[in-house]
Amino acid sequence: MGKASTVSSWLCCPCRCLFCGLLSCLFSVVATILVIAGVVVLALYLLFRPHLIHATAASADLGNFTLTPQTWILCYNLSVALSVRNPNSRIAIHYHSVEAEAYYMGQSFARADLPDFYQETGETTVLPLAFAGDHPLEGGVAAAGFRKEAIDHATFSVDVKLSAKMQLKVWAFRVPGPKPRVDCPLIIQRRNASEPTGASPPEFHPIECRVWF
């Protein structure tokens, strides 16, 4: 028994050494690749200093925002000037598949597709968003919220969201970028129906929007 065990251990030992050597080599290669990739990413970050885009709702006009009784159909005419700035000093941005959507009481009531646009470094683009039409509101909670805000100086809480796809230009190279999402919670006073045509809209204070990827 002792001799058989000794022979078996001696036969298995080279296989164990070979397996351990291959495993150790594989781990070393993977670790080296990860370290090199981390150094490259850090170097690129320090070189280009990428920043999130900045977005501001510069102006907004709520020409019509009414809710028909019983049927709860929301009739709206909303325009927003959304200012988008590329704060990067070394990265230009091409935006495509740009879509804007308007929400009230958590419900989407309007959307609009926008044309592609391009921003050089440090450039600001003003996007004119326009929503007009009608859409049903679901649930009595939304209708009750509308009635409350209509009584409270006809000032309404409207959420405008923007999404797009990015392509980044670094020197002569173009690479796919992240998909930014912009959220602008607006407080807008509705125009008075008795005001003459061409009258200035109620005062609106610019609002910084939240941006994330």
TrEMBL record:
Entry keyword Endoplasmic reticulum: no
Pfam family for this entry, one: LEA_2
Subcellular location: Membrane
Domain Late embryogenesis abundant protein LEA-2 subgroup: 82-170
Any one cellular-component term (Gene Ontology): plasma membrane
Membrane topology: Single-pass membrane protein
Keyword terms of this UniProt record: Membrane, Transmembrane, Transmembrane helix
Keyword Transmembrane attributed: yes
GO biological process: defense response to other organism
Name this protein carries in UniProt: Late embryogenesis abundant protein LEA-2 subgroup domain-containing protein
Organism (species): Hordeum vulgare subsp. vulgare (Domesticated barley)
GN (gene name): LOC123407081
